[in-house]
Design goal:
This protein is α/β, with parallel strands linked by helices. The chain is built from 14 helices and 18 strands. Helix 4 packs across helix 5 and helix 5 crosses helix 11.
């Protein structure tokens, strides 16, 4: 009998807190803080029908929102959430949504409140709400960001905290474990916010704090084996990055040589990438690897193309074509060897990808086209398996360490699917790719020598479609410009530019200009995400 989907849900393997997202820019931080407390949680759109949930949560958190509760088209929760019989915490808009459903009154604040506020607490020691603020000092500094406020709480609610401008900054039901707070505990600006969230999920929801990568490995290996079955085979693309490598090693450990990895050389990879990946995955980690050299095909199709979205689509479509051809070859060999057909496709999707696609208005339009490999599933009739789907990047790295993957590979910076093609602004030619590739290699080499690589989350060199006048030796030059990008982030949802030491920048610039023919100027990007992307 095929395993039921519910039987393989990670949320059914752990005590799980459900976060319902109303569109707040901070929603992913709620997820982060709860995971950091050792409790598993999942973020779903606020429009989620409770009857269709595939797991029973131990508690529910209602997030903030950019909307006013009175706006036409403002998002609202399924009222059945209040019949689950589990603790509920409403944050900012979530507090107002609790009031809306249970009989309280909200209104537009005279003045929008944004920034620090001093919260004075008054929970009674014998009241259940005391657990929410246990060990939180009073007053405590919190972060406000709202335009609506609670005019009067619902019946049977008591006030447990207030600020100078919010009389109902924290409220709780007199007898039921339902709580509402006007501030944002998930942001670091709220001094004791992480403690409050921990108190909620562990002290009130009674979740076991057992979400660790060491506990995840065995559960995930068993989940893979249950999904794939004793005869099924899996194929997956690898790139040499940490995500695809961890996913591949996990799959290898679960089903052995029934996992087939394919590395497609698209001609726009990093310097010596294919040779390094083959040595790491095939020679050192024992993964069943096929390398398909399609560099001429990719570069030929990219000739004359300057639009970045067209580049992505050409690379994505060509990748599907090459990968599909290799998959058919592997499938035929697998059948001939009595190993059964290939019926699963491995993807290294991470939780930030999932979060960015969650919206109460439908999937986000911001997911880049190269992430969409749905054509593979349709054409090849493969079922999708995503062992890292519930993990953040730092959790993937922790998992990689437990799987004994080499440290330098675990901490390798991310690399985009379309490769250097989207780091060459303008037409992609072999010569342009080589310039960007060599500059990038020098850049990474120097930040490693400076001991900065692990401090930086992602760094790369991009080739700009402009030319600059310069002087080299006794001659005037009119050559190209390299832009360097380096950011620091924990979850890749937001990022700050890295303050590169001036002496390191001098060495990098000097080497690139002297060693990479065709470049006479180097720039450094000092923009954060948002508004810029990484």
């Amino acid at each position: 009998m095929a395993p039921t989907e519910a039987a393989t849900e990670v949320a059914n393997m752990y005590d799980t807190v459900l976060i319902l997202d109303f569109g707040s820019q901070y929603s992913h931080l709620i997820t982060r803080r709860i995971r950091e407390a050792g409790v598993y949680c999942e973020l779903l759109p606020c429009t989620q029908k409770i009857a269709e949930l595939k797991f029973k949560p131990k508690g529910v958190i209602l997030s903030g929102s950019p909307f006013s509760i009175t706006d036409e088209g403002a998002p609202h929760v399924d009222p059945e959430v209040f019949n689950l019989g589990v603790p509920i915490l409403g944050i900012c808009y979530g507090l107002q949504e609790i009031a809306r459903n249970l009989g309280g009154e909200t209104s537009l604040a005279v003045k929008r409140e944004y920034g620090h506020a001093e919260l004075n607490l008054d929970p009674q020691a014998d009241h259940h709400s005391y657990k929410l603020f246990q060990d939180v000092p009073t007053p405590t500094n919190v972060w406000m960001s709202h335009g609506d406020h609670l005019e009067s709480p619902p019946k049977d609610f008591v006030v447990i905290g207030s600020t100078a401008t919010s009389a109902y900054a924290a409220v709780a039901h007199d007898s039921l474990p339902i709580y509402g707070i006007q501030f944002h505990p998930e942001v670091t600006h709220s001094a004791d916010g992480a403690l409050l969230l921990r108190n909620f999920v562990i002290g009130i929801c009674a979740c076991e704090a057992n979400w660790t990568m060491s506990s995840f490995i065995d559960k995930e290996l068993e989940r893979i084996r249950t999904l794939v079955g004793p005869q099924g085979s899996v194929i997956g693309a690898v790139s040499g990055g940490v995500d695809s490598t961890v996913a591949a090693v996990l799959m290898k450990r679960a089903i052995g040589d029934r996992f087939h990895a394919v590395l497609v050389d698209n001609g726009v990879m990093r310097l010596n990438e294919c040779a390094q990946v083959k040595q790491t995955l095939a020679d050192n980690l024992g993964i069943n690897l096929t390398v398909a050299d399609a560099s001429e095909l990719f570069l030929g199709r990219l000739k004359g193309v300057t639009d970045p979205e067209r580049k992505r689509k050409i690379i994505g479509n060509t990748f599907i074509e090459v990968f599909e051809a290799e998959a058919h070859k592997i499938d035929e060999i697998s059948r001939q060897n009595g190993l059964g057909p290939i019926d699963w496709l491995l993807q290294g999707t991470l939780y930030p990808d999932v979060i960015e696609s969650i919206s109460f208005k439908g999937p986000s339009a911001t997911i880049k086209s190269h992430h969409n490999v749905g054509g593979l599933l349709e054409d090849m009739r493969l079922k999708l398996i995503e062992p890292l789907r519930e993990l953040f990047k730092d959790e993937v790295r922790a998992l990689g360490a437990l799987l004994e993957i080499p440290e330098d590979l675990i901490w390798r910076h991310p690399f985009p699917g379309p490769g250097i093609a989207i780091r060459v602004l303008g037409e992609v030619t072999p010569a342009q790719v080589e310039i960007a590739r060599l500059a990038d290699n020098i850049y990474i080499d120097e930040i490693k020598k400076a001991g900065l690589y692990r401090q930086i989350s992602q760094a790369y060199a991009a080739l700009l479609p402009v030319r600059s006048v310069g002087v080299m030796g006794d001659q005037r030059t009119y050559e190209q410009v390299i832009a360097l990008r380096a950011v620091e982030t924990k979850d890749f949802m937001t990022a700050d530019w890295f303050p590169m030491p001036v002496d390191v920048m001098k060495r990098i610039s000097n080497r690139i200009i002297n060693e990479v023919k065709g470049v006479n100027r180097v720039l450094y990007d000092v923009s954060s995400k948002p508004p810029s992307t990484i």
